[in-house]
Design brief:
mainly beta, Jelly Rolls, ten-stranded antiparallel β-sheet, about 10% helix, globular
């Protein structure tokens, strides 16, 4: 239930402009992707779709064979990982791996150590939503 509540809150915050908020960074599918640097990151690029104090949303592209190194987001309360165009392998530190199917949101509490891999022959698009 918490997973669906977090999804609903994330989508509501993405679709509604809040009164008296700080300036919001917004983008869409045409926002240029930028490579994700760092050791262990191969074939990963992303673009910010929304960034404000309450929520951050990223569009992520993972090339065939692409890998995102294990990392965590300590600055968030909730993290939704949503593959859009293909299945992904989500590696959870200490808990093994999970195959996440397209449009099936995977909920993680903030600070969860995780990484992901694309074992497909096509690039996979992901949306990540972070509730702060």
């Amino acid at each position: 239930m918490l997973r669906f509540t977090a999804v609903a809150v994330g989508l509501a915050l993405l679709s509604v402009t809040l009164v008296a908020q700080t300036p919001v960074v917004t983008g869409d599918r045409s926002t240029p992707l930028r490579p994700v640097a760092g050791e262990g990151n191969v074939g990963i690029s992303n673009a910010t779709l929304r960034d404000q104090p309450e929520v951050r949303a990223l569009r992520v592209m993972v090339d065939p064979g692409g890998t995102r190194a294990v990392h965590a987001h300590a600055d968030v309360k909730f993290h939704l990982f949503v593959p859009i165009s293909g299945a992904m392998t989500l590696d959870l530190d200490g808990a093994g791996s999970v195959e996440v199917q397209p449009w099936h949101p995977y909920y993680m509490p903030g600070g969860t150590q995780h990484g992901f891999r694309n074992r497909n022959s096509d690039a996979v698009e992901i949306m990540e939503i972070f509730i702060r």
